[in-house]
Structures are given as structure tokens and as C-alpha cells.
Amino acid sequence: MQEQVGSNVYTFRATAAGLGAIGVVVVAGESAFDCAAPLFKPKKADKTRKEGRIFYGHIVEDDEVVDEALWVWYEKHPRWCCEVVELNCHGGVAVVERVLEGLIRRGAKRVSFEQFLDEAVEKGWISGIYAEAEKAVLRCASVAGLRVLSAALDGELERKVKEILAFLECGKLYDAEENLRRLLVSAEVAVRSVFPPSFLLLGAPNSGKSSLFNRLVGAERVIVSPVAGTTVDVIEGAFGIDEYIIKVYDAAGVGGCCGVAESFTIRFAEKVDFLLYLIDGSVPLEEKQKEMMRGLDEKRTLTIINKADLPLKVDGVKADGEISALTGKGIEELKRMMLKKALKGEKGVSLPSFFTKRQIRRGKEALDALKSGDFVRARKSLRNLMKEGKEEGGEFE
């Protein structure tokens, strides 16, 4: 019977699942070395408890050689601040699964990388800020977002929050408040950098939404047809501008027969960050469209007149711009309008900065407490900011 380690050891695949040249399996937590060592046989009779040293050898399970491997051990990992063993083997699914199964039999708990980060926060190995940065960088597609996350992964944001706490402890309230304001001043833009803002193309059937969607994303993703109601599902795409990524959604037209697809579009509109209301400029505006436009939130809506290549038959509309999705006229200007709307006119991020909604909420709580003289609540909010790693329900954005 194989000896098992304690319950505070976790294992996960650190490389993408599926085919690959290299598969990295991580064992992390108390007794990580004791859990992994029985599986690894170094080629030379060296002691593998040498921090940061790479050893070549084989994964051996029940006297059977499973694969070649490289071994690295850390008493305190530079990223996760706990004991870690990294086993680098070939990336085939069967190989990696055999390694993981061997570790599980020795008491390691299999988790996803994100689950491991949550456990690491819970045990105090890393802060909630660092965990959020590790999670976000997995999905971040924009250069602007990577710049924000780099400051967090390098520890700049965490150090600044600790500095604010130190100001509170020694009574330097003005310094604490000013430094907290700096972390919040461009935080909304930082969030938009890391988590791409989303726009739903909204408009009556045949207003040209599908043509515009294809123009924005640079591909024929949606069928374009003169038949009303061709688009019935929500289609997702994205485009890059400067150092940012913007998500775009196309869905069924609104203002028609108010069917199931249209009702879904209206509900979906509540979930996105912004709306782009598209008007067919070649025909007079119907009363139902006017009624819908009156109900739109101006702060999160761009109103655009399409089909500018045809004679204009729409009047009395306060539009943000005119385009032709068919010819491409005005599309680049529209992209810049969308970016400006998403960033609320800001031009960049002051680093370090809060970059998730949770961090902003805790930061504002602390700032409000400072303003009201409740320094105990301010400290509590900042400490919770450091300790928490996710929102209730699993969302960290």
C-alpha cells in the first residue's frame, strides 16, 4: 500500500490539456516533496531536495517506467509561496494522466489551476490580488491589459495596498487617502483593459447589424440577407484597436413582431456593457423605433445611422455618427467612438491600479470609511481586499 501525505497537497496540469510537446504537472502545498519524490527516479544518484535545480530522470510507477521527466523542487515557490514540485514530462494525454493518478494515489488532491489559486489565498500563501492577476492573465488578450496585470504580478499593487495600511496604522490619514485615490482614479479603465468591454448591436430588422458585425470583426461571421429575421442567435466576435480588445455581439433585430428571438435580444441587452443602436438611414424611422430609442440609456448607448451610401430619409435623430456597413465608410471612426465610449474618455491607466470590480468595491468602501473617520472599517476593507480571491458565485471580474 502506497503511503499517503496530508490533505494539504494539490496537483494540477499547468500546461494546456490535449496534444503538446511538454506537459507540466505541479504538486503544491505541505509535503509536496514527500508526495512527488516516490514517483521520480533521477538518472544520477543525486539528492533532489535542492531548490531550483533541474534534475533529469524518469517517472516510475509500480516498477514501470512511465516517461522521461525533468524535476524541479522549491521549498518556497517564487509565484505561489509554498512548497512546489514541477514535473516536466511529454505532453501526451495518457502520460500526464498517469502522472496525476500516481500523485492522487499518494494523497494529492486534483484541482484546476484556478481552484488551486483559491486554496492558496484561503491558506494565506498568496493574496487575493495576486490570485486575481494570475487568473486574469490566462484570458487577457490586450496589450493594455497585460500591462495592468504585469504591475500586479510584479507585486506593485499589493505593496501599495500594504503601504496604505501602514499609513493608517501610524496615523498618516492624508497619505493613506491620497494613495487610495490614485489606485481608484483609472481603475474603471484598467477593468476595461483586462476584461474587454462588450457592445450589443441593437436595431430593427434589416438595419444592417449583421453587415456591421462582419465589418467590425473583419470576417464573414454572420449571414447577410434582405430577409428580416435571418439572425436569431447571439453571435460573438471581437476586434482590436490600439492596445485594446472590444467584444461585439449580434442578435435578432428588435422593433418587429416581438417574438421569442426579439425578447431574448432585449434581455441580453441588460447583460452587456454598452449598446450600439443602428438605424437604417434609407427609410423613415418607425414609431416603434422612436419609442425604443427613448428608453435607451444614453450613458451606455451609441446611436449610429447606417446606409450612408444611400439617400438619407431619416430626420430628427440625434446620432453619434453615420456609416455604411456595405462600403466600409466610417467604420474606423466608429471603432474609435466605441473605444472612447468604453474608456469613458480616459486615455490610459495610472499604474499600479485596481483591475477587478471586487477590488474597486473594496477600495471605495475603504475610501468612504476614511472620509467618515471610520478607520477600523477602512482597515477591514483593505485587509479583505488582500485576503479575498473571488466573488461569491465564482466570478472574480
List the defining traits of the structure above:
397 residues, alpha/beta, Gyrase A, domain 2, Rossmann fold, 3 domains, 7-stranded mixed beta sheet, 6-stranded mixed beta sheet, 14 helices, 20% strand, disordered C terminus
Task: Give structural notes.
A 7-stranded mixed sheet has the order 3-4-5-6-2-1-7. The protein has a 6-stranded mixed sheet with strand order 9-10-8-11-12-13. Helix content is 38%, strand content 20%. A hairpin with a 2-residue loop joins strand 9 (235-241) and strand 10. The chain has helices at residues 32-36, 93-105, 113-122, 128-139, 143-153, 156-169, 173-185, 187-194, 209-217, 260-268, 287-294, 331-342, 357-371, 375-387; strands spanning 9-13, 22-29, 40-42, 54-61, 64-74, 84-90, 109-110, 198-203, 235-241, 244-250, 274-280, 301-306, 321-322. The longest helix has 15 residues, at 357-371. Helix 3 runs antiparallel to helix 4, helix 6 runs antiparallel to helix 7 (173-185) and helix 6 (156-169) runs antiparallel to helix 14 (375-387).
